[in-house]
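Researcher: We plan to redesign the surface later, but first we want a full-length starting point. Tokens attached.
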């Protein structure tokens, strides 16, 4: 399933610009390795675009959608790392990610087998941004039933 894993991983990479999980500093202060210090009580939100579109990891065209770029790495869509933080990371990485990816695979398996999916003009709709948040595009998708063989 390396192609499906790659496609899901790439799709999630393009839709997780901000992880809305605030972290509060509970000690007197916290200093990051780059020297930036956050005082006690301050809430910190991850702006994951910096990781998800990292040019050092994904190349100068890190913002293009490359559905099969992970095929050669044979990496699951549920595997987290520093440049793929859609499910968070570390000790509190999303425990539901294996289930979520499995459901996505089942859904896509049926959709791909049964339908030809396209937009009206054939172009990929732009993602809808509201500030740093990504929402599904309002453009319609057309599902055409594939001929039974
Ligand atoms: C595509 C679907 C999903 C996405 C993008 C997602 C994303 C996330 C993210 C970003 C976190 C925060 C991780 C962190 O704090 O570093 C999280 C935590 C969590 N997620 Fe998910 N999640 C998804 C599906 C699910 C599902 C299906 C379940 C349960 C069946 C689930 C259960 C949880 C739980 C319990 C936590 C808290 C973990 C902790 O704090 O230790 N998630 N998720």
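Model: Full-length starting sequence:
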């Amino acid at each position: 399933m390396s192609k499906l894993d790659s496609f899901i991983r790439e799709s999630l990479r393009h839709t997780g610009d901000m992880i809305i999980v605030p972290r509060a500093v509970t000690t007197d202060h916290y200093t990051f390795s780059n020297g930036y210090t956050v005082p006690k009580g301050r809430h910190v939100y991850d702006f994951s675009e910096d990781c998800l579109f990292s040019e050092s990891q994904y190349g100068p065209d890190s913002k293009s959608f490359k559905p099969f770029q992970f095929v050669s790495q044979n990496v699951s869509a549920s595997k987290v790392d520093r440049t793929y933080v859609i499910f968070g990371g570390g000790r509190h990485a999303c425990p539901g990610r294996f289930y979520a990816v499995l459901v996505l695979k089942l859904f896509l398996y049926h959709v791909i087998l049964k339908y030809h999916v396209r937009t009206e003009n054939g172009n990929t709709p732009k993602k809808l941004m509201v500030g740093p948040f990504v929402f599904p595009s309002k453009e319609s998708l057309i599902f055409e039933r594939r001929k039974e063989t």
